[in-house]
């Protein structure tokens, strides 16, 4: 990728207070999640005496119905949510780029076959499949990452296919072909680098949607199993205590909202910087 | 026009076929033996084999698929493993609740999205545009189940204005009662749709304003408002048809979370109950039903779009 594109992103970011705030917030949330283990509290420590305590100096976000510290649980929950988001994005991107590139570069019946396949998967409501598979597979973090990435790669594949189709008509690709470079070499050296900016943009947005999927799933009780906390499952627990402990519902939801919002803002800034031809929304 | 319809229909049939295969595989891959739900403790092994034979489960998978497909086509989606009621009947029983909720949410979203999107597109970087931008950002980032919980907390628990659960107060059957129950879930869903619609309308307004006919209207001395709400709106409304078609696929899946939070007795909560109870025939029925809706919704959108905008020829 050209240096100037990153300069564009930096320029776009500089003039955008919202963007700077998003980057800083994401940084803080990521650090908090990575270093959650340094916390002196155990996220799963039950305490019958400290049930449903409102936020205080001792318990910043209060305690839940088992007397567990909500702040500590939110830290560890963030760890799982972010991990699911990032890893699902990586897998989905890998599948999407591979399928999209093969489809766009070779065209013909391979393209037809792969794109019909994408159409079929996209015509089954993905959240239903997500629910179904999570019932079959007795979910843990690993299987949830696999399921989410298997449901997310199609849109990347479509974008990458379209981009590959324009890239392969570029002169330098045609020259490389004429000079007898191997197909693999052309794809690796000439197509893949050209795809980088589209891929980065959709990958950022995909982290956001993966986090959202995981939270919805855990909220319904089919995600990561208890007692391990995720933001979604904390909200599930909070539902029964809206009367006596409404703060239980505030913080995990706010964290999902802020994290997803930050990734979306970042995705937009990257798009404007890296793909100026698409323009501002 | 006719060519477009025929072509899209021809594309749809194999899609439906493959979706049905995927659904069938999902049932077959389900853990557990379906015969189990018929077995009672004092049965002999021979009885169990007889049940297996009667259910056709001893035949090869591909034959089972065609039998299943034939049954589906004649409207028999099988029977619930839990209450032994026909699946299709249960889905159709729940359909009005979900369809009513969804239709009102979509209507509310469209009514709000049209003026907001038009004004934002026409006044870029002004307050309307900033508002729309904010709605768009918040809308795609806000977990709807969290919004639902917050709304229940504020409107039901704190202010006691609206009921938080179900569709009817027991013992009453007035329409007003259903509307009161529907306000919260409908608003939550409407916010989800509004986000998508408003962005779409805004960007198509921006591109429409660059068209020649707008300049011609200016030259004729029309003012901005007339141009926007009379001429541009007509063109902007067309793509909404596509969006509405796509929303049909969300009918079931989109309502799962919201219906669960508000205990709304629709298809979404039927699906949740089925998933909790591992009631495969019901799960599959709902998956098949909503996939078919999604495919048909897209088909319908394409055809309608072709009718209202004849510039799109069968070349697509």
Automatic annotation (TrEMBL), chain B:
Membrane-spanning parts: 101-122, 134-158, 178-200, 236-262, 282-308
Domain ABC transmembrane type-1: 95-305
Keywords annotated in UniProt: Cell membrane, Membrane, Transmembrane, Transmembrane helix, Transport
Protein family according to the UniProt entry: Belongs to the binding-protein-dependent transport system permease family.
Gene3D superfamilies noted in UniProt: MetI-like
InterPro entries found in the cross-reference section: BPD_transp_1_N (IPR045621), MetI-like (IPR000515), MetI-like_sf (IPR035906)
Name recorded for this polypeptide: ABC transporter permease
Subcellular location: Cell membrane
Topology of the protein relative to the lipid bilayer: Multi-pass membrane protein
């Amino acid at each position: 990728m050209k240096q100037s594109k990153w300069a564009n992103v930096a320029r776009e970011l500089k003039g955008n207070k919202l963007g700077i705030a998003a980057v800083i917030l994401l940084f803080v949330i990521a650090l908090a999640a990575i270093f959650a283990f340094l916390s002196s509290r155990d996220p799963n420590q039950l305490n019958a005496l400290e049930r449903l305590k409102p936020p205080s100096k001792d318990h910043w976000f209060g305690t839940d119905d088992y007397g567990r510290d909500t702040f500590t649980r939110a830290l560890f929950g963030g760890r799982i949510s972010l991990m699911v988001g990032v890893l699902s994005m990586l897998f989905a991107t890998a599948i999407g780029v591979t399928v999209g590139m093969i489809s766009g570069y070779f065209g013909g019946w391979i393209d037809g076959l792969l794109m019909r396949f994408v159409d079929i998967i996209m015509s089954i409501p993905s959240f239903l499949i997500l629910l179904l598979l999570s019932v079959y597979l007795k979910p843990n973090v690993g299987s949830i990452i696999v399921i989410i990435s298997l449901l997310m790669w199609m849109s990347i594949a479509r974008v990458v296919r379209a981009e590959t189709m324009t890239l392969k008509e570029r002169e330098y690709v045609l020259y490389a072909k004429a000079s007898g470079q191997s197909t693999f070499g052309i794809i690796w050296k000439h197509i893949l680098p050209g795809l980088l900016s589209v891929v980065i943009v959709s990958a950022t947005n995909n982290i956001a949607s993966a986090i959202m999927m995981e939270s919805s799933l855990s909220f319904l009780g089919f995600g990561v199993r208890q007692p391990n906390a995720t933001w979604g499952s904390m909200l599930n627990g909070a539902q029964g205590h809206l009367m006596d402990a409404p703060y239980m519902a505030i913080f995990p939801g706010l964290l999902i909202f802020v994290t997803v919002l930050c990734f979306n803002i970042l995705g937009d800034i990257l798009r404007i910087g890296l793909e100026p031809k698409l323009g501002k929304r | 026009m006719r060519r477009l319809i025929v072509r899209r229909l021809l594309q749809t049939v194999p899609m439906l076929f493959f979706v049905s295969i995927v659904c069938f595989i999902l049932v077959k891959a389900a853990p557990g033996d379906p015969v189990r739900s018929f077995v009672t403790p004092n049965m002999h092994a021979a009885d169990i084999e007889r049940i297996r034979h009667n259910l056709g489960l001893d035949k090869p998978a591909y034959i089972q698929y065609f039998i299943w497909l034939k049954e589906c086509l004649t409207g028999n989606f099988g029977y619930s493993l839990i209450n032994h009621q026909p699946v299709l009947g249960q889905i159709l029983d729940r359909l009005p609740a979900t369809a009513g909720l969804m239709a009102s949410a979509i209507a509310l979203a469209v009514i709000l999205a049209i003026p907001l999107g038009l004004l934002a597109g026409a006044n870029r970087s002004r307050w309307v545009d900033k508002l729309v931008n904010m709605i768009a950002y918040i809308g795609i980032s806000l977990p709807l189940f969290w919004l639902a919980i917050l709304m229940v907390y504020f409107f039901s628990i704190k202010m006691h204005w609206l009921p938080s659960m179900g569709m009817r107060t027991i013992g009453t059957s007035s329409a007003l009662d259903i509307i009161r129950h529907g306000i919260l879930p409908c608003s939550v869903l409407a916010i989800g749709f509004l986000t998508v619609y408003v962005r779409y309308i805004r960007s198509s307004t921006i591109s429409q304003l660059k068209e020649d006919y707008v300049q011609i209207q200016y030259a004729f001395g029309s003012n901005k408002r007339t141009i926007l709400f009379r001429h541009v709106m007509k063109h902007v409304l067309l793509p909404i048809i596509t969006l509405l078609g796509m929303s049909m696929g969300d009918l079931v899946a989109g309502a799962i979370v919201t219906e669960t939070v508000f205990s709304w007795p629709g298809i979404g909560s039927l699906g949740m109950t089925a998933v909790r109870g591992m009631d495969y025939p019901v799960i599959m029925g709902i998956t098949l039903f909503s996939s078919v809706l999604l495919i048909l919704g897209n088909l319908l959108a394409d055809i309608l779009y072709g009718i209202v905008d004849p510039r799109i020829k069968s070349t697509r």
